[in-house]
């Protein structure tokens, strides 16, 4: 040994490293990693059908068999089930491996019909591809193939062709393990095994479309896509789903400038590849023939087509008149939660800086105060790995479906205990460690007594706590929920909050500035002022208060009272129909930009098709209008707006075009957001003859995204009052009968549904469903709304 | 309507109570339902699904896996002729042939009077007594064509009513676990060491 | 009724020691009274007088090889459960359905208390908190006898809370099967007991002893295996190992069926009795029927590769039979004389395994049926020479590499010991191939004789039925 500059090299032993060889080449795998994944990391793709990274391996198809030697000679190994072991020698190319792969493929093809030319999957089919790459080249199977009735509808959206099915257990595993809706299942045995639903019990899962995406053959097809295109004709771009604020990562596929399909992308922090059916299929509304294709200007009683120049001039004139008549405070801008961050930022600047009004707000009176966004924020991953999740909010399955999948998985796997506070049973109730049902208005008391419980206290002390907070009841002031959130935060100092705000880009819109400046009005305040004749110009940016604002009467009076209305929208909604000018906005996938999800993750949106007709992006409309009003916002392209946001919005410095690619980047919490102010809620006692009203959303409602998507439109349910079976008896009515429901506002006749998931003494009505309007009963200024229910 | 009747629902709940997880009672409850109705109906499946906390699709998946559950009505007597090796070596084919001829139905069919359903069966664990058959799963050993005809005669005439209950009744004796004697179910998520292991179990 | 004979099939000739069939001589061996009168529940009392660890040790010393098919020693299996993980369950495998097998049904019908006592001893020794006795659905008499015995035993304080006044408490729950051969496979048995389809789980990575019923450590033992325990508890391991050989101690119940003069179920001394003894011996089957020639026999249940007269002098001992290219399996011997139509016999077995495939894994689901269809064609006289090679090719997709078969000197082939390579999850798939492989390698000429080579296919109006 020389005593010169020889330093002994520090050998860092990674306790998680496992040394193996793959086809003779050394490779460092991770402890516990499956052979199939380790091989993929080393660049050796092992063919597979049943294996899916996001589901428990089952080792059924046997396609992934390879030879592995763990010291006792080469053994047949199911690479999708067996973890790597030190010094294992994996051989994906041995003669036995090859023979097995050819054998399995031949057997899989034995009963598979050769209808590839007319199969939707043809061209992107793992079976077709692997038969080519790993198959025997010819089939010696001359026997009669299995026969089944050709595609049967297993749900409203999905068809099943059992002849093509290779029984890989992916769809059934997904339904059971991921979605929790075990409604499709293997039937019969042996060579007769096939997939079916129970008669008259369709695969009515909110997540059914995922099964089509993960089916390795063309056995499952989605109604909206069947026979629409051939894969080699498709162009595709990565994007983000804006249907709700989970912001699932997607690819948007088009052919000849037409949107054809949306698929989930496996984003580790967000959606794991899954989408809900609403998000997957509501792109149909973009193609709707009912879209507004050019600006409209009111001429007498009619809205008539106009050029952009004249429409912008008309809109600018309305604003100028309003400013003259009532000053900046008489102008209000509502909306912006449906667009991109760029749209919201341009509109916020137009409102605040150009017009000078403090009255700008992105929420429709159905969320929680924007101040919630100023609290220490949790990510989705943190939620899904927390020891405890305190769920104070809506039915995640109905409002934020993929967030529901993530939390359900965490609860199912025993990682996370969920303490749910809700006025009725939700999709998560059966997975919750504790479900605490409360009557509206009493969540603070419910929270206090829960926190005083020893078992709960011990659980909350057991590890990280995440509070998922959202609006559980539209017929109740949000103040009680806010107060309950404060209680948890006070009791558990380290707790973080994941805001369960619902609408697509509501978090982004609020963060970049679509919120009132000091002295400004929120939506409720704006509508109230308008009803009182104090709003000279109301600007609706993709906002439809008449169908979205919980208090229908106030919305109606507000719109009637507003002197002038400008609507920026993709459809002539009920509210837009009252406007003086309608500015035709481009829709999802027609514009690029960025999107912020509920955890603050900013990702990109792709323009995949050209906008319908003459439609323009909201940000462009704002810039045009600003210019007409005498201010140049300085935007020539969407990228200009993106950089401007990074420069001007606190917490967004890191949100650069590079950073938003792929899984995106987390924006920091904007320190300018107002912390939540303390509002005392005074809730009176419920009269024993009355029922406390609970109103919340379900996945499919009459919002344009679903109403204008033919495949989804009929999935709404009827507007009806749901009562606990014992309360039905108490009212003296029966399931299915009609009753008169009266509040301080008015009376509405509803059908009755017996529903054990409803708390006794409360009445639940789903919002914005076909049939009588529950919003008519709601007074948005009341802490809670009580109703009387009578037979008729 | 062929959900479990009231008495059977009570029995079903008692059976469920013997298992750490309710779903384990699926097969026993399907038998109970088959005993009640002679075969399994969709209503029964939906009811059992409710009772054991599974979806109807899952219970149907289990039900159709097992040979003994019949989703269509079968005869009062299910005649299963074994055709596996030992029986086949000693004349199962001839016995089946004779049975088809004398009952006037092909294997898989039911006689017009609804008395008999004839089926091919697999090994009945009586190989030394070949050829074998079962009537409602009651073994009949070393069958001959004469013995077969005699048996069918006896069944038609009701002479075997005491020995062979109608299809669906599996066993006429049920296990009863008296509540005061029961040790209780061992729930998988309650990790208690059995009392008798605590001392000396590890010595 | 008359077709319900007592102990049908059981033959007790000669003066061999009896461990599990000692009460078969009594018509009422299944009653608690008779059980008491013949030393019943003494094994349990003896066990309770010792620590669980001592009883476990005794069973280990006795080396009770599993009687369900795999032949794994029971005591060793119990020791594989992870220490300190509770609850642990015992699942009794009473699903007996392997072609040729007939012993567990007799044990349940004739001596249910012995099985119950065996379960109790196992539960006590291995710390098992609850016992599930899974009985094949198509055995109503076994159900009735076991249910009656369980009810009696509960009433007498042998099962339940504080058994015989001790700290030992356990329930035994009688469970119904519903007709599916594959459920006899231990992991499928567990799935079935969980109320699911009886699809075997893949092992490795997890064996039931580590992760079984409801994810907990679980012991699956065969009825006959457990029925040995009361005797061992009373007489000790030394007395047990004094019978039989070192590698195969004790006795075994063996069913010999098919073309022999006196088919029957015999309790034989393990490891020493040869197949020749069994087939030709005076106290056993007394030769082939009508003085015919022996052609072949299946030594250990339908899945076992076949033997020919050349292997007659092998003893009924697992290792030697394994070295000769087959297995003892479940103790079922099926005998074929020279009149047997070999291809048809093979078809019967292949049909069985194809029909009983659970259907979850590709090679078994698709390959089993394919084998059956090609074989059917050959048996029906519609096959071609290419079909015979095709059969072996399909088999190669199920079991790549060499497949075990009798080490026939005439064929000059080396025996291939277990385990062989297989692409399936469980042994059902390979079992569909075993008879094809045996029959085709040992008796290929019989297959060829069935092939009518067609030079051309005549086109006639009103073509023959077959085409
Ligand atoms: C396809 C298949 C079927 C089986 N059927 C039975 C059976 O019916 N009865 C049985 O006891 N074991 C059967 N076995 C063996 C069991 O898997 C298991 O090894 C046995 O029950 C363990 O008990 P033992 O150790 O006491 O033998 C079968 C195995 C396979 C692969
Ligand atoms: S080998 Fe056959 S029975 Fe066994 S798991 Fe595979 S399909 Fe099922
Ligand atoms: S991918 Fe491994 S068995 Fe299917």
Largest sheet of chain B: 4 strands, mixed
Q: Tally the helices of chain B: what do you get?
A: 8
- The top level CATH class name of one domain in chain A: Alpha Beta
* Sheet with the most strands: spatial strand order of chain B: 2-1-3-4
* Overall tally of structural domains of chain B: 2
- Mean pLDDT across all residues of chain B, rounded? 95
Can you walk through the features of this model?
The complex is a heterotrimer of chains A (792), B (203) and C (467). Chain A is an alpha/beta fold and 792 residues long. In chain A, the strands form 8 sheets. Chain A has a 7-stranded mixed β-sheet with strand order 15-14-25-24-23-16-17, with helices on both faces. In chain A, strands 30-32-31-34-29-33 form a 6-stranded mixed β-sheet. The longest helix of chain A is centred in the middle third of the chain and has 19 residues, at 308-326. Chain B is elongated. Chain B has 2 domains: 6-71 and 170-194, NADH-quinone oxidoreductase subunit E (Arc Repressor Mutant, subunit A, Orthogonal Bundle); 77-157, 3-Layer(aba) Sandwich (Glutaredoxin). With 203 residues, chain B is of the alpha+beta class. Helices cover 37% and strands 9% of the residues of chain B. The termini of chain B are far apart. A 4-stranded mixed β-sheet of chain B has the order 2-1-3-4, covered by helices on one side. Chain C has 467 residues and is an alpha/beta fold. Chain C contains 17 helices and 8 strands. Chain C has helices at 32-37, 42-48, 52-62, 74-78, 104-110, 112-126, 140-155, 186-193, 223-227, 229-241, 275-280, 318-323, 342-356, 362-379, 385-398, 428-442, 444-449; strands at 89-94, 130-135, 171-176, 218-222, 251-258, 264-269, 294-298, 332-337. In chain C, the strands form 2 sheets. Chain C has a 4-stranded parallel β-sheet, with helices on both faces. In chain C, strands 6-5-8-7 form a 4-stranded mixed β-sheet, with no helix packed on it. In chain C, helix 3 (52-62) packs across helix 6 (112-126), helix 3 packs across helix 10 (229-241) and helix 13 (342-356) runs antiparallel to helix 14 (362-379). The model of chain C is unreliable at 1-6, 409-413 and 462-467 (pLDDT under 50). Classes of the chains: A alpha/beta (792), B alpha+beta (203), C alpha/beta (467). At the B-C interface, helix 2, helix 4, helix 5, strand 4 and helix 8 of B face helix 7, strand 3, strand 5, strand 8 and helix 13 of C. The site of iron/sulfur cluster has 14 residues of chain C, from helix 14 and helix 16.
């Amino acid at each position: 040994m020389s005593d010169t500059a020889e330093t002994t090299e520090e050998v860092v032993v990674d306790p998680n490293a496992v040394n193996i060889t793959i086809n003779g080449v050394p490779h460092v795998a991770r402890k516990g990693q499956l052979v199939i994944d380790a091989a993929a990391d080393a660049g050796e793709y092992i063919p597979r059908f049943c294996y899916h990274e996001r589901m428990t391996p089952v080792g059924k198809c046997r396609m992934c068999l390879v030879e592995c030697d763990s010291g006792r000679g080469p053994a047949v190994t199911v690479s999708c089930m067996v973890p790597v072991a030190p010094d294992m020698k994996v051989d994906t190319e041995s003669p036995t491996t090859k023979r097995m792969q050819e054998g399995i493929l031949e057997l899989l093809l034995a009963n598979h019909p050769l209808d590839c030319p007319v199969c939707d999957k043809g061209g992107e089919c793992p079976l077709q591809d692997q038969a080519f790459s790993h198959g025997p080249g010819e089939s010696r199977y001359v026997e009669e193939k299995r026969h089944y009735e050709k595609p049967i509808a297993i749900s409203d959206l999905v068809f099943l062709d059992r002849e093509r099915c290779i029984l890989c257990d992916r769809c059934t595993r997904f339904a059971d393990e991921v979605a929790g809706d075990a409604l499709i299942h293997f039937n019969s045995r042996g060579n007769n095994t096939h997939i079916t639903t129970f008669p008259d019990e369709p695969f009515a899962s909110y997540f059914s479309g995922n099964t089509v995406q993960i089916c390795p053959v063309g056995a499952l097809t989605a109604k909206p896509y069947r026979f629409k295109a051939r894969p080699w004709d498709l162009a595709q771009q990565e994007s983000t789903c804006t249907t709700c604020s989970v912001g699932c990562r997607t690819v948007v596929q088009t052919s000849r400038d037409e949107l054809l399909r949306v698929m989930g992308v496996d984003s580790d922090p967000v959606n794991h590849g899954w989408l809900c059916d609403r998000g997957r299929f509501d792109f149909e509304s973009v193609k709707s023939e009912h879209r507004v294709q050019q600006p409209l200007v009111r001429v007498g009683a009619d809205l008539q087509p106009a050029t952009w120049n004249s429409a912008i001039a008309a809109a600018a004139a309305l604003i100028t008149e309003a400013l003259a008549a009532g000053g900046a405070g008489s102008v209000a801008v509502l909306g912006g939660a449906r667009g991109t961050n760029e749209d919201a930022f341009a509109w916020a600047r137009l409102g605040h800086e150009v017009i000078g009004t403090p009255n700008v707000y992105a929420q429709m009176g159905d969320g929680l105060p924007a101040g919630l966004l100023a609290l220490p924020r949790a990510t989705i991953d943190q939620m899904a790995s927390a020891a405890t999740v305190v769920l104070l909010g809506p039915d995640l399955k109905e409002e934020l479906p993929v967030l529901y999948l993530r939390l359900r998985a965490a609860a199912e796997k025993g990682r996370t205990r969920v303490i749910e506070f809700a006025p009725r049973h939700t999709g998560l109730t059966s997975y919750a460690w504790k479900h605490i049902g409360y009557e509206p208005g009493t969540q603070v008391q419910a929270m206090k007594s829960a926190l005083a419980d020893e078992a709960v206290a011990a659980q909350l002390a057991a590890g990280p706590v995440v509070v998922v907070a959202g609006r559980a009841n539209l017929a109740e002031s949000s103040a009680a929920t806010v107060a309950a959130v404060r209680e948890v935060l006070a009791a558990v100092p380290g707790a973080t909050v994941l805001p369960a705000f619902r609408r697509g880009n509501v978090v982004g819109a609020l963060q970049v500035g679509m919120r009132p400046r000091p002295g400004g009005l929120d939506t409720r305040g704006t509508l109230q002022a308008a009803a009182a004749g104090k709003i000279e110009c109301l600007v609706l940016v993709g906002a439809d208060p008449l169908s979205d604002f919980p208090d229908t009467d106030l919305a109606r009076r507000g719109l009637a009272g507003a002197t002038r209305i400008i609507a920026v929208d993709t459809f002539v909604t009920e509210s837009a129909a009252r406007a003086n000018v309608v500015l035709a906005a481009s829709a999802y996938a027609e514009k690029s930009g960025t999107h912020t999800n509920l955890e603050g993750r900013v990702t990109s949106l792709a323009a995949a098709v050209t906008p319908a007709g003459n439609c323009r992006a909201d940000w462009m409309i704002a810039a045009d209008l600003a210019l007409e009003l005498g201010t140049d916002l300085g935007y020539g392209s969407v990228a200009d707006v993106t950089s401007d946001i990074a420069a001007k919005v606190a917490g967004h410095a890191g949100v650069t075009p590079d950073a938003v690619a792929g899984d995106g980047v987390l924006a920091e919490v904007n320190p300018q957001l107002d912390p939540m102010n303390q509002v005392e809620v005074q809730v009176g006692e419920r009269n024993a003859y009355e029922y406390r009203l609970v109103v919340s959303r379900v996945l499919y409602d009459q919002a344009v995204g679903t109403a204008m998507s033919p495949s989804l439109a009929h999935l709404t349910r009827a507007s009806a009052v749901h009562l606990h079976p014992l309360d039905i008896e108490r009212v003296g009515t029966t399931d299915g009968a009609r009753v008169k429901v009266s509040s301080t506002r008015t009376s509405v006749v509803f059908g009755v549904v017996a529903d054990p998931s409803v708390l006794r003494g409360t009445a639940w009505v789903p919002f914005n469903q076909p049939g009588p309007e529950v919003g008519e009963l709601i007074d948005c200024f009341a802490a809670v709304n009580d109703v009387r229910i009578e037979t008729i | 309507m062929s959900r479990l009747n009231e008495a059977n629902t009570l029995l079903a709940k008692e059976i469920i109570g013997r298992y750490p997880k309710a779903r384990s009672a699926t097969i026993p409850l399907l038998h109970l339902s088959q005993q009640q109705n002679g075969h399994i109906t969709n209503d029964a499946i939906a009811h059992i699904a409710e009772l054991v906390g599974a979806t109807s699709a899952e219970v149907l998946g289990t039900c159709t896996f097992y040979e003994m559950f019949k989703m269509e009505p079968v005869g009062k007597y299910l005649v299963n002729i074994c055709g596996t090796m030992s029986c086949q070596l000693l004349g199962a084919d001839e016995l089946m042939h004779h049975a088809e001829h004398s009952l006037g139905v092909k294997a898989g069919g039911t006689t017009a009077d609804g008395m008999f359903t004839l089926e091919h069966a697999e090994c009945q664990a009586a190989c030394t007594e070949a050829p074998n058959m079962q009537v409602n799963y009651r073994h009949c050993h070393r069958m001959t064509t004469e013995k077969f005809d005699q048996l069918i005669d006896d069944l038609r005439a009701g002479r075997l009513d005491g020995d062979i209950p109608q299809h669906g009744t599996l066993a006429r004796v049920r296990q009863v676990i008296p509540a005061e004697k029961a040790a209780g179910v061992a729930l998988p998520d309650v990790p208690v060491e059995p009392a008798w292991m605590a001392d000396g179990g590890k010595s | 009724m008359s077709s319900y004979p007592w102990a049908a099939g059981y033959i007790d000739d000669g003066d061999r020691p009896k461990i599990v069939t000692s009460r078969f001589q009594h018509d009422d061996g299944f009653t608690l009274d008779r059980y008491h009168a013949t030393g019943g529940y003494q094994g349990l009392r003896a066990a309770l007088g010792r620590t669980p660890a001592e009883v476990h040790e005794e069973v280990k010393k006795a080396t009770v090889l599993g009687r369900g098919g795999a032949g794994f020693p029971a005591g060793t299996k119990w020791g594989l459960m992870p220490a300190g993980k509770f609850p642990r369950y015992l699942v009794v495998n009473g699903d007996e359905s392997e072609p040729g097998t007939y012993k567990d049904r007799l044990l349940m019908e004739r001596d249910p208390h012995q099985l119950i006592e065996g379960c109790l001893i196992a539960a006590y020794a291995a710390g098992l908190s609850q016992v599930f006795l899974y009985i094949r659905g198509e055995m109503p008499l076994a159900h009735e006898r076991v249910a009656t015995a369980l009810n009696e035993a509960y009433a007498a304080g042998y099962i339940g809370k504080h058994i015989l006044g001790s700290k030992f408490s356990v329930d035994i729950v009688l469970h119904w099967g519903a007709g599916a051969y594959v459920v006899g496979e231990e992991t499928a048995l567990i799935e079935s007991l969980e109320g699911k389809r009886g699809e075997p789980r893949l092992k490795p990575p997890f064996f039931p002893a580590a992760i079984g019923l409801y994810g907990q450590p679980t012991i699956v033992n065969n009825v006959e295996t457990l029925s040995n325990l009361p005797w061992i508890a009373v007489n000790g391991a030394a007395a047990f190992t004094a019978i039989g050989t070192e590698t195969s101690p004790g006795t075994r119940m063996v069913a010999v069926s098919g073309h022999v003069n006196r088919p029957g179920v015999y309790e034989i001394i393990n490891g020493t009795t040869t197949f020749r003894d069994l087939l030709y011996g005076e106290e056993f089957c007394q030769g082939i029927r009508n003085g015919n020639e022996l052609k072949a026999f299946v030594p250990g249940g339908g899945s076992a590769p076949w033997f020919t007269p050349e292997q007659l002098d092998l003893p009924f001992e697992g290792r030697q039979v394994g070295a000769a290219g087959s297995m003892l399996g479940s103790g079922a011997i099926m005998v074929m004389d020279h009149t047997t139509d070999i291809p048809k016999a093979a078809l019967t077995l292949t049909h069985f395994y194809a029909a009983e495939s659970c259907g979850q894994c590709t090679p078994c689901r698709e390959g089993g049926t394919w084998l059956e269809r090609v074989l059917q064609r050959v048996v029906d006289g519609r096959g071609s020479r290419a079909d015979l090679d095709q059969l072996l090719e399909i088999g190669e997709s199920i079991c790549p590499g060499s497949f075990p078969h009798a080490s026939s000197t005439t064929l000059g082939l080396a025996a291939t010991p277990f385990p062989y390579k297989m692409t399936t999850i469980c042994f059902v798939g390979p079992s569909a191939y075993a008879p094809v492989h045996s029959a085709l390698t040992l008796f290929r000429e019989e297959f060829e004789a069935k092939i009518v080579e067609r030079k051309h296919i005549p086109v006639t109006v009103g073509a023959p039925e077959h085409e």
